[in-house]
Each structure stands twice: as structure tokens, then as C-alpha cells.
Amino acid sequence: MEQLGYFILRSRNFILFVLLEVLCFYFIINTNNYWSASFFNTSNAYAARMLAWSNAAREYTELHRVNADLALENEQLHAQLTRLQQGAPAAPAAYKADSIFANRFTYTVAKVINNTTQFANNYITIDKGTDDGIRPGMGVISPTGVVGKVKLCNRHFSVVTSILHSEFLVSSKLVKADEIGSAKWDGVDPHRMKLLDISRYKPVNKGDSVVSSEFNSTFPPGILVGRVRGVGVQPNQTFHDITLDLATNFSNLSFVYVVENRLQNEQEQLEKQVENEK
């Protein structure tokens, strides 16, 4: 306290000068219309800029919550879209899917906490496990396309086999040509895949969509796998050499949806029984 008093005493002339300057500035602003308007315009401009910075900072800190809310909303939209598509598939007018079949797919949103793209066999870790109803074999998709399939689970986490895996095949359909094939990663570029087993006599064009087919029990049909990037034909081969641009960008994967096919076990058991009887 003694030092503060000594400082004020020593700087009394400077402090008096500052107070007089502030007083003069106050009188100028309040007695002159021009300077008053200039002051308030300038102060408002700086205040608006500070508010803009403050709002931008607050919005940035809330991005995680906003992304989580959007992921939950997309989960609900995916479920509604799948029910509509499965309830009225492309079939003769006399056919009508029963409600259990139309509602067989359910979705659980999860956050990606680890993800690799640089290996021949890549995996993804998500923050949902058996306590959230996740189990091995479930499909995983992103807001833009196919991601992979659940491999291992514990109570709170799951490891997903990425489609960027040397042994992962996705039963896929070339939409425009209405042709079924298999999408497989060649281990080179994490943004590209190969589409196999498409006859060279089928028309294929750059930009054609490739989606998950109806002939798998893991993914809902119609989930985008990618779009045709290039088409070629190898000599003495009966199939196109097709390269796809992947629909999912694995380099910035944040939220995914784990897909449960509630009729998967029933379907696979029946098909296995048929195979055993052959």
C-alpha cells in the first residue's frame, strides 16, 4: 500500500494530465455534434467488430455440439428413408413388403476416435460398444457412403474393418447399367476403389453411381459406394476395368452410423441351412 501511494505521488503530474485529457475529450464529444457523431460511429464499428469476433469464437467452441446434433438428425433421416425405400421397392405393383421387412434396418450414431488409411488393411475405432447394442457383423456407413463392418466390440468401443482393407468386398450395383459387381480396394489410393465383375458389354460412363446392392445383409441397399472415375478394358478380358471415386472421405471421417439388420441372423441361418443340405 505504501508503494502504491508512493507511485501515485511520483506520477501525480502524469495522472492529472490524463484526467484532464479525458475531461476535455468528454466535453468535446458532448458539445460538438460532428465529433459526437464521429465518436459514436467509430465506437459502434469497433463494438460490432468485437461482437463478431466474440460470436465467431463462441460458434467455434460449439461446433462439436452442432456436429453431434446434425449426426443425430441424419440418423433419424436415414432410418425414415430406409423405411420408405424398403416399404415400396422397385417391384410389380402387386408386391408389398411387410412392415417387419421394411423396418429391419436401424441406425446408431457413433464418433470416430481412431482411423487409419495408410496400411494395406485399415481399421476404424468408434466410441460405441456392446452397451449401446453394437455387435460384430453390423455395417457402418457415413453421411456420404459406405464405411465398413464392425469386427470387434467391448462395452464402450468397437473396431470396424474399413472398406480400405485388402479382403473387404462390397456387393455393389452400377445404377445406370443395372449390373451387380463387387467393390474392392486395391491398396493404393484411399480415395479410389475398383469395381469388379462388370461385363465389358454393359455401358459404363464416367460419373455413373455405384451403390450397395440388394444382395447383402450388412448394408441397406442404395447406399452410395462411389462414382465411376475411369473405365477401361484389359486385353482378352470379359470385364471392364473400372475405377471409382469413393463417396466417403476417410481422411476427415468424424461421425458414422452403425447399421443393424434385425433380420440378418434369420436370413443367414436359413441360407446356411440350405447350403448344408446341398
TrEMBL record:
UniProt KW NADP keyword: no
Pfam families for the chain: MreC (PF04085)
KW Signal (keyword) present: no
GO cellular component: plasma membrane
Alphabetical keyword list: Cell shape, Membrane, Transmembrane, Transmembrane helix
Domain Rod shape-determining protein MreC beta-barrel core intervals: 112-260
Transmembrane feature ranges: 12-29
GO biological process: regulation of cell shape
Entries under Gene3D superfamilies matching the protein: Rod shape-determining protein MreC, domain 1 (2.40.10.340), Rod shape-determining protein MreC, domain 2 (2.40.10.350)
PANTHER family: CELL SHAPE-DETERMINING PROTEIN MREC
Family, similarity comment: Belongs to the MreC family.
The protein, known as: Cell shape-determining protein MreC
Organism: Rudanella paleaurantiibacter
Upper lineage: Bacteria, Pseudomonadati, Bacteroidota, Cytophagia, Cytophagales
